Here is the input.
Amino acid sequence: MFEQPRFPREALIPLLAGIAWLWPSASFGVLGFLGSLPPGCLLLGAGMAMLLWPGDHRIDQFAAIGAILGVIFAIPAWFTEGLAMGAWLTGISVASFL
Here is the structure.
């Protein structure tokens, strides 16, 4: 019988990415906050779903959509929030896509 892993470690990357998007989002202003909600909620939700329900392929698709939105929405963060925050959000979004 094939045994599913209980808490896969690869779920921690989108979980961390969702937290990284949502934690500082209040300091981004109103437009930055509204722009950080879609990637943050998708990545955090997909990371928690991967932890709780491993093996469902639809969860990976939601994480990939959140990661693509994260890379797109991180471009303005390079200019408004600085290089370190922009690089962190872009890097963690790319890592959760892979």
